[in-house]
Design goal:
This protein has 631 residues and is α/β, with parallel strands linked by helices. It has nine helices and 47 strands. Helix content is 26%, strand content 35%.
């Protein structure tokens, strides 16, 4: 028996109801997924709100301050150093690597190369002066240029050849030092040398300059070391000077100067000039020569010497003939001086000789005025029996507290505090001056005016040879103050990139080269986001130059460095806002479609449900009716 039409209809409606229920459940699930997607879109948007970037302060053309987004490379260009977690090496460019290698351990040279002040092939600065940073540059120095020292230079072990400085040119030591010289720095100087410290153990005529010629100037120079030579004209600062208008100012020497010949001095050996001016200079150490030996200058003509001192001890080895001439003269300040003026000077060194003419201040002083000067050092003759040799020559050994002999000299307001130790025998020994050169009255006028001697020896041994003798019973209050050379660095290399700190950091920790595959930043040098993420995650640290720090850098952060700031990344935020808006529109559209489809299904389900109820009611009534018919 087949199904009735109502039964068949009910069966179809039941099947359709199951389909509607399934489809509605599926739509509800999809709608839930859409809600989850909406939440994810919102989370992405919130994440974008938290995204930041690092910015650096800049000065605009109108003088206002603004900030610009920073990248890894930009931070390096600003002088910062960036170090990766667990790695203290700094990151440098190929150019910086080349500059570091060229500088070869010289910090100032590295700074100059980094700043572009000089190049590896051209060390001429903007002012036209050639700058010297290395020993090789010094050794390549020519004569016809102006030079400026920019670093301390050690020439130890170098095959140094003394240089010539031509007229009108300047070598400015700039407050730095040259050490390790085995021969003089200059063979000859006709220009200007200044602001320099020099040290060496020279076998030539000097440590600084073997010779000086007309127009040369020496100013603010300190010389130390030793000179050992067999030549004549030997001194620590200058061996021999000649010509006019030579100037020596604010110079000092501390050296052992030894020669077997003549004209040997602590500062200068011989200044045989037509005019030379010496001011505020000093010498100390030890001076030894055969004759014409001075603690300050061995031989001097036509000089003006003011406010100078010598504490160098001296030894004159010549036995001489005992006569008053320069051949066997020695003095605490000057061995022989002629046609000069000396004022406000002092000699404090011990003076010794094997024979000849020696004095606490000068050996032989000829046609020279000496004013307001003092002698302090002990004066001793007959070292190693020299007096015997002099006597054999028919002469005498002449020893004096101030000057052994004068020839047309004038002494004003001078003091001798020297302890005079005479040779004995047929020698002359005086507390101040022995006599004039001839030992008797002559055509030259010799004057001693208001001078003092603390010695118990006769003030003058041969009084008849001196035209005027005015001995003071008390010391003169001579104010003699010699100051140290004012040697200072006047020109410095401007470090506006933190190059000094970078140099020390490279030396201390090494470096990573930009672009190297070992460098985590390779490929990200211009990425603002990468830099920010690396810093915020603690994988990259920012360091700022600080010369007080041990390795030249201190760690900083965005919050501690006033030149940096961290702000919201507006470009990412704008993109996120646009994406959020677009995604939400899509989600909303789909959500409305889901709601519409679900509403349609609900309407259809209600209709089917109502129809099914009706069919069930009709079927029931039909069954009851049939039952009554057959009962």
């Amino acid at each position: 028996m087949g199904l009735s039409s109502s039964q068949a209809r009910l069966l179809n409606l039941t099947s359709r109801m199951h389909q509607i229920e399934y489809k509605a459940a599926k739509l509800e699930a999809e709608k839930l997924q859409m809600a989850n997607k909406s939440a994810k879109v919102y989370e992405d948007y919130l994440y974008a709100l938290d995204k930041t970037k690092i910015q650096g302060k800049i000065l605009t053309t109108d003088g206002s301050i603004t900030y610009t987004d920073l990248t890894y490379k930009m931070l390096l260009d600003r002088g910062y150093q960036l170090k990766f977690e667990g790695d203290d090496r700094v990151v440098i460019s190929a150019d910086t690597e080349a500059n570091f290698n060229t500088a070869n351990g010289n910090e100032n040279y590295f700074i100059a190369l980094e700043s572009g002040r000089v190049t590896p092939t051209n060390n001429q600065a903007d002012d036209g002066v050639y700058e010297i940073y290395t020993a090789d540059q010094l050794m390549a120095m020519g004569s016809g240029k102006n030079y400026r020292l920019m670093s301390n230079i050690d020439l130890t072990g170098k095959n140094w050849t003394s240089k010539y400085l031509s007229s009108g040119k300047t070598f400015d030591g700039n407050g730095y030092s040259i050490t390790g010289l085995k021969t003089a720095l200059f063979s000859a100087v006709a220009g200007t040398v200044k602001n320099l410290n020099v040290q060496g153990n020279s076998t030539s005529n000097a440590i600084l300059a073997n010779t000086a010629s007309a127009g040369s100037t020496f100013e603010n120079i300190s010389v130390s070391g030793s000179v050992n030579s067999n030549d004549r004209n030997v001194g620590a600062l200058i061996g021999y000077g000649s010509g006019s208008n030579i100037t020596i100012k604010n110079c000092s020497t501390d050296a052992s100067v030894i020669s077997s010949s003549s004209s040997i001095g602590g500062l200068a050996g011989a200044l045989e000039c037509s005019s030379v001016t010496i001011t505020n200079c000093s010498s100390k150490g030890y001076v030894q020569g055969n004759n014409t030996v001075g603690g300050f200058i061995g031989y001097l003509t036509n000089g003006t010497v003011t406010n100078c001192s010598s504490s160098a001890s001296s030894l004159t080895t010549a036995t001489g003939d005992g006569k008053h001439d320069a051949d066997d003269a020695g003095g605490g300040f000057v061995g022989y001086v002629g046609d000069s003026t000396i004022s406000n000077c002092e000699a404090r060194g011990e003076v010794k000789s094997e024979g000849g003419v020696i004095g606490g201040f000068g050996g032989l002083i000829q046609k020279t005025t000496v004013s307001n000067c003092n002698a302090y050092g002990n004066v001793t003759s007959n070292i190693n029996g020299g007096v015997t040799a002099a006597a054999q020559n028919g002469g005498k050994v002449n020893t004096a507290g101030f000057a052994s002999a004068s020839f047309g000299a004038t002494f004003n307001n001078c003091n001798s505090f020297s302890n005079v130790n005479c040779a004995g025998g047929d020698s002359q020994c005086a507390g101040f001056v022995n006599s004039n050169m001839s030992g008797a009255a002559d055509t030259m006028t010799d004057v001693i005016n208001n001078c003092y001697s603390s010695s118990n020896k006769p003030f003058v041994t041969q009084t008849s040879s001196i035209d005027t003798i005015n001995e003071s019973a008390t010391p003169n209050s001579n104010s003699i103050s010699v100051t140290s050379p004012s040697i200072s660095t006047t020109t410095t290399v401007t470090d506006n990139k933190g190059s000094s700190s970078l140099f020390r950091s490279i030396q201390e920790h090494g470096y990573i080269l930009e672009g190297d595959q070992a460098n985590p930043a390779t490929g990200h040098e211009d990425d603002v986001t990468w830099l920010t993420n690396m810093v915020n995650t603690g994988n990259l640290y920012i360091y700022k130059p600080d010369n007080m720090a041990e390795d030249g850098f201190i760690q900083v952060s965005v919050s501690t460095d006033t030149n940096l700031q961290e702000v919201s990344d507006t470009s990412i935020l704008k993109k996120a806002e646009a994406k959020y808006e677009a995604d939400m529109k899509k989600i909303d559209k789909k959500d409305r479609k889901y709601d519409s489809d679900l509403a349609s299904l609900e309407t259809e389900r209600n209709a089917i449900k109502q129809e099914m109820e009706t069919l069930k009611t009709v079927a029931k009534e039909n069954v009851e009716r049939t039952f009554r018919l057959f009962s």
